[in-house]
Amino acid sequence: MPMLKTGTILPDAAEELRIQAGIAADPDTYELLDPVIWAKMRPLAPRGRPKAEVTKERISVRLSAEVTQYFRATGKGWQTRMDEVLKAYVEQQRSSS
Question: Could you tell me the CA-to-CA distances from 41 to 31, 44, 91 in Å, in that order?
Fold first, then answer.
């Protein structure tokens, strides 16, 4: 059983019976007890973020506080902007060689 949050209140036996009776009375609800049907169940859509066509390499790098503060101050997407500045530098170095 998964860990419950502190303060979670579980229904007592009488309340659980009322909940189950309500579920049974609802014509739009049913339990999937057939293991064959249960085995065929699949998620409706993939979960999570879609895979990017071009992925970036995760690294650890030490930068000066001045640089990170500047880029963070530009708001959301600051790491992408920092990457764009570095790519422009790389292109400049390649063209001057």
Answer: 13, 9, 50
